Amino acid sequence: LDVFDDVDLAAARAKAMALTDLFVRLVAERLGDTFSLVSPGDAAVRGNQVSLAHPHAYPIVQALIARGVVGDFREPDVLRFGFAPLYVRYVDVFDAVAALADVMQTEAWRDPGFGIRQSVT
């Protein structure tokens, strides 16, 4: 744990809030009302994750994982994304939203393989 001795927790929290704010803003800009924000809108009370709702959340998450964007699924219809400020970069947020937009625009999530429920979601 010595590696964390020099970590400024206030700076880490500020970055986490900036990352989640960026993600929420980019999803809204690129995908409009395709998803509903489940997490609080205020980053100060949101924590380091963002949850979005969509009726086809499970296959969407699986399509994202196939593209290297790791999120997780929560019943009944929630996609959840974590933003660890010590190693998640702003470019990672842009890339994740670009992948999400591509999955939705190409309807890649409709691939039957993405709908097969795995034991770990």
Show the helix and strand layout.
Elements: H1 9-31, E1 36-37, H2 43-46, E2 49-53, H3 57-66, E3 72-74, E4 78-82, H4 90-105
Helix pairs in contact: 1-4
Word description of this protein:
There is one protein chain. The chain has 121 residues and is α+β, with helices and mostly antiparallel strands. Helix content is 44%, strand content 12%. It has a four-stranded antiparallel sheet with strand order 1-2-4-3, covered by helices on one side. A hairpin with a 3-residue loop joins strand 3 and strand 4. The longest helix has 23 residues. The radius of gyration is 15 Å and the shape is globular.
Number of helices in the DSSP assignment: 4
Unreliable spans:
none
Compute the gyration radius: what is it? Answer: 15 Å
Average pLDDT reading? 95
Q: How many distinct beta strands? A: 4
Shape field: globular
β-sheet strand percentage: 5-15%
Q: Describe the sheet with the most strands.
A: 4 strands, antiparallel
Amino- and carboxy-terminal Cα gap: 29 Å
Instruction: Bin the helical content.
Output: 40-55%
Order of helices and strands: HEHEHEEH
Structural class determined from secondary elements? alpha+beta
> Biggest sheet, strands in spatial order?
1-2-4-3
Throw out a few tags for this protein.
alpha+beta, 4 strands, 4 helices, single chain, 121 residues
Provide a short characterization of the protein structure.
By secondary structure, the protein is of the alpha+beta class.
